[in-house]
Amino acid sequence: MKQCDYRLAIELLLLLTVVAVLPGCMVGYPARSKVETVELVSRIGTSSNVLETIIARHTEHRCTMLLTPDGLFENWILSVSTDYYLCRADRSLIRLSFLHGRGWMKILPVPSANLWVAISQSKRRGKRDDIEIVVFQEDKLVRTRPLKTLALAEDGHYIGFLVFSGARWMIWYPTKRGPAQYDILRDVYISPLEEWREGEGEILMGKVRP
Asked: Which of 14, 67, 76, 106 could form an SS bridge with 27, CB 3.0 to 4.6 Å?
């Protein structure tokens, strides 16, 4: 009888170990994920019809915890992932894998061309704020350009900024050598700098434009 109880205990322990390891929970099992779909921006046609829409699909990966200090805990959120899709006029979806894994300050259609432009959230690298500019057409990545913007002065004071002009499709940002401008559609750096009209640029980072 003791041998049977010992064997049963071992089997239960192994079962709990497998259940815990597979879903990534301490002691638990996978639960139904929560998915939220958000429409971000659309390309509008000449007849005010929607041609394409960029959507974000946020997924909360969950599990039910069996053993916690407070007992049973349902819908424990393990992680959150976001996938981006292009939705065509016929409602078919194209997954935009090159946008996965980052947050985006702006995703915009280019009216003069069948292109999209995405401007990423910044990532702090020492005294820099690194930005990524992505140009794409449907699920085809046209190009990606990293911008290494200056964020902190020598005394640690924040001096960063990022200004976007939708009329010029240009980015204005600081570098170690001074202010710089990048033309997104032409894929060139502007020298000498162009003067922008008052109120033309949209401030994406920082408080004031140069």
From this structure: 67
